[in-house]
Design goal:
Strands 5-6-7-8-9 form a five-stranded antiparallel sheet. Strands 1-2-3-4 form a four-stranded antiparallel sheet, with no helix packed on it. The longest helix has 4 residues. Helices cover about 5% and strands about 35% of the residues. The protein has about 210 residues and is mainly β. The protein has two helices and nine strands. The two termini are about 20 Å apart.
Length: about 210
């Protein structure tokens, strides 16, 4: 059984039944240790963070560094990713940017990682495996779903370290199951016990961390 395979694929259709809840890519979660007292308007600021040849795949807002201002996760994709992406060399990178709200209402890019979101054809026959992002209490998670007869999920979660003012890999795991026996799904979750301390900017979804 292979849990995380770029060669398989699957995303549940509206007619399929599955025992797992998934998170829509457009869902936004805003729940923090303390209320956000100054929302930041990102609508007119995002363009400065989008390089030529890229467009927005998804966004999610919330409080990523536990301060008083609304932050945002911005996920980009190459405009021609469907043509250039290859599951062998993972050429269709999808940058994930952490944008932090500032006291003056502006947004600042705090960190970037090109290897957190799986490529457009890493989901196999069910297509794009990207399945959404959530933010809560200084944590954020990127969700994937793929496979064929064998289905798999993969959720990568990061946690903010307020002392070090940085984000670190918190959990990396998911489930796998055969469509004929979803009740026998197996879960595999790796934590800092297995992979140690991994900075957000250093994580690579295509490689096994800690080895």
């Amino acid at each position: 059984m292979v849990l995380f395979s770029c060669g398989e694929s699957a995303k549940p259709s509206s007619t399929e039944e599955t025992t797992f809840e998934t998170t829509p890519g457009t869902e936004q979660v805003e729940s923090d240790d303390k209320p956000v007292v100054k929302p930041v308007d990102y609508s007119k600021q995002l363009s400065q963070f989008i390089p030529k040849g890229y467009s927005v795949l998804d966004t999610a807002s919330g409080n990523l560094n536990l301060d008083d201002y609304t932050d945002m996760i911005l996920i980009l994709k190459k405009d021609n990713e469907a043509e250039i992406s290859d599951v062998v060399d993972n050429s269709g990178k999808r940058p994930l940017l952490i944008l932090l709200g500032q006291a003056d209402g502006t947004a600042k890019k705090a960190a970037k990682n090109d290897n957190t979101v799986l490529c457009v054809d890493c989901g196999g026959v069910f297509g794009d495996p990207y399945n959404g992002i959530t933010i809560k209490n200084g944590y954020f998670s990127v969700e994937h779903y793929g496979g064929s007869n064998w289905r798999w999920t993969r959720i990568v979660t990061y946690k903010y370290d307020k002392k070090e003012q940085n984000w670190y890999l918190h959990k990396d795991g998911g489930m796998s199951y055969h469509t004929s026996e979803p009740e026998n799904a197996e879960e595999t979750v790796r934590t800092t016990k297995e992979f140690g301390k991994v900075k957000f900017v250093d994580f690579d979804v295509y490689k096994e961390q800690g080895e």
